[in-house]
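User: Round two. Same drill as before: sequence, then structure, for each protein.

Assistant: Same drill it is. First protein:
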Amino acid sequence: MDCMYKNPNAQIEDRIKDLLSRMTLKEKIGQMTQIERQVATPSNLRDFSIGSILSAGPAGGSMTFENALSSDWADMVDRFQKGALESRLGIPLIYGIDAVHGNNYVYGATIFPHNVGLGATRWGRCYEGYSEDTDIVRKMTSTVSGLQGKPPEGYPKGYPFLAGRNNVIACAKHFVGDGGTERGINEGNTVLSYDDLEKIHMAPYPDCISQGVCTVMASYSSWNGRKLHADRFLLTEVLKDKLGFKGFVISDWEGIDELSKPCGSNYHYCISTAVNAGIDMVMVPFRFEQFLEDLTFLVESGEVLMSRIDDAVERILRVKFVAGLFEYPFSDRSLLDTVGCRLHRELAREAVRKSLVLLKNGKSPEKPFLPLDRNAKRILVTGSHADDLGYQCGGWTKTKYGVSGRIIIGTTILDAIKEVVGDKTEVIYEQSPSADTLATQDFSFAIVAIGEPAYAESTGYNSELVIPFNGNNVLSTVAERIPTLAILISGRPLVLEPHVLENVDALVAAWLPGSEGGGIADVVFGDYDFTGRLPVSWFRRVEQLPMNPAHNAYDPLFPLGFGLTSTKRTPLN
């Protein structure tokens, strides 16, 4: 307590100034460094004063063993934190995770619907966005307050905020325009005037900043040919100076390496360009000793000014003080039992119900097909996605790219159907229905769940967007013989063949609903009505992309905002 920065009653800016004055250049650069868990050791954290660790990589999660529980994660993070606190000044770590729809690397955690169910286009990361409509995205920035807590009235604009120990540091990303690249190419080039960039893609960021978002991540993509990680105008002059953001800007995974070709070949240039542009913390993530050495050289040679280093470290320390890390650096063990609890799963189930969009209900206005009869004599459940939690959750679930199978704790669509139907109802499940089953069984109706495999980022790039796993044919085969509800599990609109759309009796866009498949059964069997509307335009043919509702040639299969209800034949207003 003889040091002001250790005094919890002192003003945060005074604590920052005091701590910064005590730090060596080596310690400052250490704070600007984020490393991957696999290269983190107690001695590295102590000796280099590393600022942050993350768990990531293609395998996802980067945990020491499979199906690690919340207590295992808490033990690991606390061990790392102990190493950081043994550094000369005892500056605690920030631990970074990819948790775009729940803390998906923790076994037993609740997995919420991907953002697309709460936006989508041709882009392989489209399910990470909320909508093609800027206004909808702006409304969804309330997620920041959901994670961090809501700042009190009169809280300083742009200043990072965290309400308490039950909250987590949020990251607004990816700044800026990564959803507007040419042909939807991941890490591509967004060609727009500044006015359009500001109006379409930047508009949600002031909303995040006004809620005290602590961090912003730079995009891999380019704006008019200039990489965002190298764009001082956007990162410093706009984000920090014009918009007043006072948290810290973090790079994406090896994002600065992409500033030279071959990737990372001129590391001096990559580091100096990114840091001078306004990157405060660098997600290195592996060759951190090279980063520390090179940035030290760049400062000592004058290519990166000490004032830029001090600005970056001030921002990082500001977030750490705001988050209460100096007072409470270790895990709150009282929260461990809440992971995957009933309350969380009920909330996720509600989110599923509200995200479902009913695209068709009956072959004629006079005869709606939904809701389904839960006391029907015999129901056929089929399709590649009817009993697959991995596909139901999509990418960023257990691993970065996601996998098929019962990989988490949750309820599949099949599980949910079996739970809600009557005691005398027979449920027949075949992933691929045989000709014999279709010909000899007397079914009241069929539920066919089809869709996309799990993917993330560039692995999801697709220029055809047909339903995978022969989905259109499966639907046709079943719907020609049995009254059919089709449930489409996907991160974006897919091509719906006209004859298939005509044959099915009802069609639901369920997006990537997550672990709580019960939310689907709640709605299709009539306990709740449909309230979801399309966050994106549903094209007829991929050649129509990109689509713009403001254009005269706009002719979608289903327009932005479309959605039916079970009880009302006209679209929702």
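Second protein:
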Amino acid sequence: MAHLLGGLATPFLCKPINASSSFNNNYTSASASASSLHALDSLYIKRAAELADKSAGFTAPHPNFGCVIAHPNNGGGTVVGEGYLYAEGTIPAEVQAVEAAVERCRGATAYLNMEPGDCHSNSSAVSALIKAGISRVVIGIRNPLQHLRGNAIHALRSEGLQVDVLGEDTQNKIIEDAVKSCLFVNAPLLYRAACQVPFSVLKYAMTLDGKISASSGHASWISSKKSRTRVFEMRGRSDAVIVGGNTVRRDNPRLTVRHGGSHLPRRIVLSQTLDLPEEAHIWNVSEVPTIVATQRGARRSFQKLLASKGVEVVEFDILDPRDVMGYLYDRGYLSILWECGGTLAASAISSGVIHKVHAFVAPKIIGGKNAPSPVGELGMVEMTQALELIDVCYEQLNFKFVYSPNTIFILLVSGFLQPVPDLTPTIPSIEETSAIDPTISPYESSIIFFYKTWDPYGGFSNFSLHPFQMPNENGELVTWSSVEHYYQAQKFVGASDPVAKSCMEEIQCAKSPEEAARIGRRIQRQQPNLVRPDWESVKIDAMYKALKCKFTTYPYLNSLLLSTAGSVLVEGSPHDLFWGGGRDGEGLNYLGRLLMKLRSEFLGDSSTSQNSLLHQTSENQ
């Protein structure tokens, strides 16, 4: 049975690979019949892709990385270490694999599903491989981001390691499948880099006669409990879940992830007229934020009602799926799951923003002339115009009805509407571009934007992984993994409540800056009594102290900041109107201001006054 592209254990791999416990035996038998080293390389690269996929949904907006260290030989090879990146800010996959293999690394080969994204002089992944004595590195695909592509490969080769990029010198079916597994596991990043929109997946369940509900609108349940569990997994892999107004009115969905995972995607409602109920599960933002995208000027009174509930409303001149995806791209989203009805699905497909489809097909017939179908009018009049899925996979999900002794099978059909882009042959790195034309510089603008940590100036972000030490209330040095870790924890400093102290410890131990932010914001929202009463007046100072410590600790960051002298620094978040510049430049840009003040301080220019910043207040962040 073929398996799902986007399922549970191996969501992007059509042919799942067994767990690590039986991995060596399987690879020994498989490679014994292989005719070349390329076949063995392909098998280990597939394993690296499988490991990388374990963190899907947790690394966003960053790539999924996996690493396998092995000693390939005529007998098939032996795996001595494995690892994968859990989230940005956690131990790199390469470091984990090296630590697992210890002295067995010497002379071994490291297999990476994607070229490491060592940026801002954080070369821990590359350094680990070099210091461990790895002799050869095989990479599934190059890093698709322009400012990172080729950097790690160059660094490894300059240290004498043999570096091979799979498929760049030899092509066959085995290699093609291995490269494809690497493309699939980081499809969201590749689509984002190529199309400037998030990777979008359309999911629906339908009967055998193509209906998503009865004529009455009743749809509980077309599929099975097992398929609904699979949907929860899909949500957990996504940055956001989109529905239309009809779905909110008809189903009153929660759109939550009920498998216990810590990653909770945002809920997004698209509604032109805001003809929505005043009370709905989706307006409860105590656990998960909700965003409503609507037409400019629609129902101002209802917008105020949503705002009072904590729901974010974003207006568009014309509510078009492509414009919404462009906005979410600007917010740094990688992956979107569409769980909408046929009308919105057709609009999204027509706009070209749907890249993949998951269709659950149940062996049921409901009939009904007016019963809705999963995709509305696309304007096609001939079968030759039909959109064909590629890289299609099928999976059977079996279950039993309580009232029937028979086992029922739900068929899950998955495939891509657009091929996963392989950007490596077409996107040159900054260094490669400058070598062709030395007059080209990526930093010519007098306004420098920074936002995500993968950006050229991403080291300026409070989410960048740059650990530093700061004294606590007792004068003892405490290590913080990032500025965001420190900032979120400062909300609860000084509280005598032991719960507040445990909150600080939970934030400090968070595995990534994103997780620290989620914890701090959630506690602030749910238990405001734990937040220090002077937080609004001291939060700017807390951020500044952490930034100053970070840029003092890392000389290369200090040099990067000083290199921007004469330029305006703008934190490019389109939705954070306090720390960021906002969608249309309406934000206060306090993070950019603090960095420019810090730059002036480092340059000996005290013209910028910190007091003017501290006296300004804003909405609670």
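The two ends are 50 Å apart (CA to CA).

User: Perfect.
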